[in-house]
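1st attempt posting a full record on here, be nice pls
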Amino acid sequence: MIICPSFYDERFDGIGRVSKMVEQTFLEMGHQPQILSANDSEELCSSELGVGYGRNYPKMVFSALTRSFLPPKTIVCMHLGLAPVARIISQRYGVPYLVFLHGIEAWQALNLRRRWGLLKVQQLLSNSNFTLRHFHDYNPTLSHIPSVVIPLGIGIESKEATDLVQKPQILIVGRLDQSEQYKGHRLLIRSLDLIVKEYPEVQLIVVGDGDDRPNLEHFADQFSLRERVKFLGKVSDSRLSQLYRESMVFAMPSKGEGFGLAYLEAMAHGLPCICSDVDAAREVVQHGETGYAVDPLNLFDLAEKLLALLTHPKRRKTMGQAGKERYLKHFTEKHFQARLQKVLTLKV
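the predicted structure (as tokens):
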């Protein structure tokens, strides 16, 4: 069984993508998991293997207490906030449950409800050492819970050579939600104001949508950069692949990544990456080898590193190739499944 925030609504955010990879891992092991989705509507979850609660958490808890589910062999809970639901079903059926830690939701002192949800957990799964370490920093009394770090992976076919001419553009991919302003969009826009003085043809390509987009567009206007910053909204997978292949640099100087799947997408396409030096992205992007980790409070550091990649084709190519090799060696979907299977084999 997989208990997750969203699964069927095609939001394809980080947790949703990982939830689907967890399902695929179960399938590879010969088990068809039932999916309990907190946010999906009942209409989206029409089969007996999918149950949606339409953002009605009390309804989900009541269902966990009373509904007859297909007896699970193990439960993987994909968000701390749903751990109480996992604990209830685990105790009803006498099966183990595991809880996945992703990032900022774990970097805080847990309230009583979430702590209760973890009191009987068999194991915590963390996407990075950074996430697990910060969880323990904020919740030292829970550091005794068995835990394992399972770095993520993605299933992108790596192309040996691009068939597109690179353009003088910087790419960032991520939701534009006011609740996720830590991703660094404003810092990139401000850095562009410095970069255009030395590299006037540069553009910033912003992929993603959300309630913060109008604010970001206005922010770009304040620096007279509307023609330099292109907001594309949501794009198709094929269009996104094209953008990765024709861009020179992927940059997301975020201050709150628990891992950062977008860095893997860029690396799979042979693109050098710029991340921050204060979150888990440093476990994905190797500073000086596959890109740069910058101080997210230092605008000039970011602008300097971007210019170093934009104006040096050989350096871009070397770092991009190193990133692709690192992706293929450590961070494919098969790598993630193999790591998760080692844990689940002991539980199912």
